[in-house]
Amino acid sequence: MFEKGFLEKGFFEKIYALLLRLYPARFRDEYGEEALQLLRDRSRDEKGWARTLRLWMDLAGDLAFSLPRCYLRPARAEAPARLMTDGLPSFHVVGSEAPRPAALLFGAVLSVVALFAVLILLNHAGSYRILSSRSDASQPEAPATWPAGAGPAGTQTGRTRSPQRSASAAAILLDDRFRIDAQERHRVIEAAAADVDKYYVDSEIAKKTADALLEHETKGDYDAVTDGQVLADLLSQQMEHVSHDPQLIMTYQAVKEPELPPPTEADLAQMRVALKRSNCRFEKVEILPHNVGYVKLNGFPPPDECGGTARTVMARLNNVDALVFDLRDNRGGMAEMTALLAGYLFRSRTHLNDFYDRGANSTEEVWTQPAPKGNRLADKPVYVLTSHESFSAAEGFSYDLKMLKRATLVGETTSGREHMGMPHRIDGHFVIRIPGMKVTNPISGTNWEGKGVEPDVKVPAADALVTAQRMAGEKIAGK
Amino acid sequence: MIDILNIDMPKRKLDPLPSAAFHILLSLADEDLHGYAIMRQVEEQTEGRMRLGPGTLYSSIQTLLEEKLIQEVDRRADARLGDERRRYYRLTAAGRKLARAEAERLAGLLRVARAKKILRGDHV
């Protein structure tokens, strides 16, 4: 019925040129030719029935998705309409230019033809593999939110929009300056005080700070504040005044954020794939002159995914005479991985640090993992290279080894960012960030927060490797 | 380390940034590209999950241009694709800043997940 030439370039292009007439004139004039060119490019590069069909499907999805948006987006010259009516979001209906009836008719006829063609193609599939394995995810992901809260309201190519997406789309319809009333203000202040009291790492400071906020409220210090941003800034200032902790912060955003769903198994799977691709953050593993082992590690990934890689790396370095851990570009990660790697540097299980979480009211001791039998690194000299850019778990690893006098630190003082404010959501506008966790080294009784970890040998980060290599060489030769 | 405290996200009509717009900004991070090259770059960086159709691509480009997050640089032919002249787009400083802020926001979400002990024992 349909010959091979049916979906050839010329025909395809003509159909799409007609479909383009559904778009507003402004869009057509500006981008019509580009859109056709994109189609020509794809047709040229995607030959064969399966790919051609996929291209058709993409275009159908694109049309369904982008067409309403082109009409719903406000014209450039117009000031965005105020979209808050009595506290309820309202919706843009149709822009200044409606589709012409003839265009709609064209669209309807052509859509039927296209659908018919697809059905015929499916029936003629025979031995063709019609869709690639990716095709179920082939549509452009629905933008979470577009300016006019647009996007097809119901389904996109048969997929139901998630409640989160819809909530998010509605949320941006709120006016961009969020005025707060007395009730909202009271709720935010009460919640902030309660969260600080419950989660802030030092219970005494937590109580004092929370009390100060409530006292300000009782005195009426917030009564004049009707702007969300002003309230957030004021609360941040007052909290810092009492706690002296600049990381205890109230943040505000005018655009209401929906509550985010927890990561799915698919999200975690994607993270694992990314980890594997980056070789579990082990950028370089080599044996330098004088039999010095060198590991450049840019993160401390979770041992569940990367324990195997870490053990392979350490096994490869088992016979070196000295070991250099290059953490100059290391942005931190999991304490368990620091424990696994540090395990190779000790003969027996060693206490590294204590991990305290005020909210959970728990202290977890972190100890080195036992190294496998035959490990020969436990008494070899170790050098750790640091920079201003070494963060968090990288600092923990350096600090603990320094306290245990198990490594010589070479380079720059680290960033000193040990505890960070974890976000606690008050509502879609206000989020308070509260430092709630603390790492304590059992030897020093403290940590590197604010100060950073001081190296034993201070040199610019760029010179750290050469310096450590020289020191290791001398140490080995002196043996 | 992700500094989620210092995210300075401009409040505008691309806030929150739609996924397609974010990917277009990312695609332009390294070099100026024309529309089709953007589409291919986005396809590559999403491992084939996102193929921007002409309508989505150019309406996103239109919005990004209006918001001055990208700019049109010139029209020239792409030797690999024939001699038609194509419009090339470039990331502006504001666009780069927004893309970075969005990347940090996403990284911040990961931190939240960690804080909720989904990834236990982390002290990033």
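qc> The CA atoms of residues 20 and 32 of chain A lie 7 Å apart.
qc> done
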